[in-house]
Specification:
This protein is an alpha+beta fold. Helices cover 24% and strands 46% of the residues. It has one helix and three strands; from the N terminus they run ββαβ. It has a three-stranded antiparallel sheet, covered by helices on one side. It starts with a strand and ends with a strand.
Length: 63
């Protein structure tokens, strides 16, 4: 089992930017990893996130 580092952006007035590290498998597709990253961020932030356009990118995958 490897891990992935994902950068998440929420376009609020302040321009919220987060970096999340999470476990992943070598065969996991990018969309699944990004979806898990949003879920983990929401849990870490207490169950809610600010409104705004959201974007995400995988910075690094370690297998």
């Amino acid at each position: 089992m490897g891990k992935a580092i994902v950068k998440l952006n929420i376009a609020t007035y302040a321009g919220e930017e987060y970096v999340v590290e999470l476990p992943c498998k070598k065969e996991d597709v990018d969309e699944i990893i990004i979806s898990r990253a949003w879920k983990k961020l929401k849990e870490d932030e207490g169950g809610s996130l600010p409104y705004g356009h959201r974007s995400a990118s995988i910075i690094k995958r370690i297998d």
